[in-house]
Amino acid sequence: MSKVALFDHEKFSNAIRKSNLKQEQLAEHLNISTRHVRNLKSGGTSVSAPLLYKISQEFQKPMEYFLSFREEDESIK
Domain holding 46: CATH number? Predict the structure, then answer.
């Protein structure tokens, strides 16, 4: 078994909601498109390490906050 880190789109959505930022404003702060913000909120895309860092800085949370971890069976590949 190994641990796999996944972007937690629900925590990202909650952080946006609590910040009162509009998606357009957040996209501008993160230097990404509003479509990318929507995809991150819905879980429709993965996140790069540099973008995860920007998100953590924007919301003043550790990078790990926006990750969820699960066990993956290495024999199922």
Answer: 1.10.260.40
Do 40 and 9 contact (CB within 8 A), yes or no? Answer: yes
Whether 11 and 66 have beta carbons less than 8 Å apart is answered as yes
Q: How far apart are CA 74 and CA 27, in angstroms?
A: 36
Q: What percent of the chain has pLDDT over 90?
A: 77
Containing domain of residue 10, as a range? 2-70
Q: For position 48, what pLDDT does the model report? A: 95
- Mean pLDDT, the chain, integer: 92
Helix (H) / strand (E) containing 70: strand 67-72
Q: How many CB atoms lie within 10 A of CB 66?
A: 22
